[in-house]
Amino acid sequence: MYNRRINTKETPLQSLSFYFPLQFISYYVIIGDMNKKIAAILILALAIILTLIALVIIGQINIGKLKAENLSLSAYASAVPTFTYPESTDLVTIKDSYLGEISIAALEGVPRNSYDFDNLYYSDGRYRYEVDGFITSSTGIDVSYYSETIDWEAVKADGIDFAMIRVGYRGYESGELTVDTKFHEYIAGAIDAGVDVGVYFYSQAVDAKEALEEAEFVIEQIKPYQLSYPVALDIEITSAENVRQNEVSGEVLTEVCEVFCDRIFEEGYRPMVYANKRMAYLKLDMRRVCKYDFWYAEHDRDGDDPTFAYDFRMWQYSSEGKVDGINTPVDLNICFYNYNLD
Fold first, then answer.
1. CA angle 13, 18, 20 (to 5 degrees)
2. 314 DSSP β-pair partners
3. What is the pTM assigned to this prediction?
4. Alpha carbon distance 336, 330 (integer Å)
5. Residues of the chain with pLDDT > 70: what percent?
6. Contact in structure between 264 and 219 (CB atoms under 8 Å)
7. What residue ranges in the chain does DSSP mark as E strands?
8. DSSP per-residue letters across 284-327
């Protein structure tokens, strides 16, 4: 440690000057001869002037930085749109099993459903839609090999107008494309019985390439048949482990829908997307999906109205339906659009 020797005869200014870089100049200002005092004063004055100039320059630089930062902040603020909370009429409500009831802003450009549900009636476990006393809806089922043997004549006689039949699926672990083992039997039987038919494919595509593969697969299988209802892509999130599509982003799933549906449309069929409310609201970009017909799934309403805000052509309202000619519980649907007029 440096020990300074204290001179008891130092003046207060001499003692203070020791602690400054200009201590030697101060020393000559105080006790030097006249020439040294003048020289020291001039040097000290020059040092003060240079210091002031340096402070001014530094101040200007800081001011410039502040201005630049303010400009940057202004540009950022103008680039980021101000969020305005929507009016209550522009909200859609979701009853989530984890979060409870939540509200989100309705998407611009996505048509709302325009149905008057005062015209929706429920009896004997089935829905119908009437306008001016006339039934304008049709009643349908959707089936896969789980439905086992089907007597299509009995199905028709029980008031079933149409059937959406599963063409096949992509394995949710293997990714292999497989034809439903009952597809060809079902579609031929339904057509022979006078039941209008459409088809659906259970997708596990994880990118656009696989979506196109699925579309080509479906097209090849349905070529021999005359369809009067749409060709639907079934998009679902399942709780099983190792499911390929569960980790796919909403952006990619939306692209999967677009690629599949566009290819189906090119072949002259009516494309459709099947999904439930959670998938439609929280995963898919409905601003892009809404250009296709939408088949909405919401079960266990037991006579209550569907709760989906956007437009849909078909509603799957039960997985526990009872239909003559089918020995297992079956999915029930109402279609609000007359595809036979296309």
1. 100
2. 295, 335
3. 0.74
4. 20
5. 79
6. yes
7. 91-96, 100-105, 120-123, 126-131, 134-135, 138-143, 162-170, 177-179, 196-202, 231-234, 271-276, 293-297, 314-321, 330-335
8. S-HHHHTTSEEEEE----TTPPP---B--SEEEEEEEE--TTBS
For residue 182, which amino acid is it?
K
Task: Count Cβ atoms below 10 Å from residue 166 Cβ, excluding itself.
Answer: 23
Distance CA 335, CA 230 (A): 11
The pLDDT assigned to 17 comes to: 42
Contact present, 41 and 22 (Cβ < 8 Å): no
- C-alpha of 28 from chain center: 79
**CA R_g for the chain:** 39
Q: What's the residue count for the chain?
A: 342
Tokens describing residue 110: 């996505």
Q: What does the alpha-carbon distance between residue 216 and residue 208 come to, in Å, rounded to a whole number?
A: 12
Q: Is 165 exposed, middle or buried (0-12, 13-18, 19+ CB in 10 A)?
A: buried
Each residue's pLDDT tens digit, 150-168: 999 999 999 999 999 999 9
Task: For residue 284, give the amino acid letter.
Answer: L
Q: Look at residue 88 in the predicted model and tell me its pLDDT.
A: 52
Q: How far apart are CA 296 and CA 258, in angstroms?
A: 17
| Sequence-distant (≥ 6) Cβ neighbours of residue 162 within 8 angstroms | 138, 139, 140, 141, 195, 196, 197, 198, 228, 229, 333, 335, 339
Nearest Cα neighbor of 167 from 121, 230, 97, 80 is 230
- Distance CA(264)–CA(258), nearest Å, equals 10
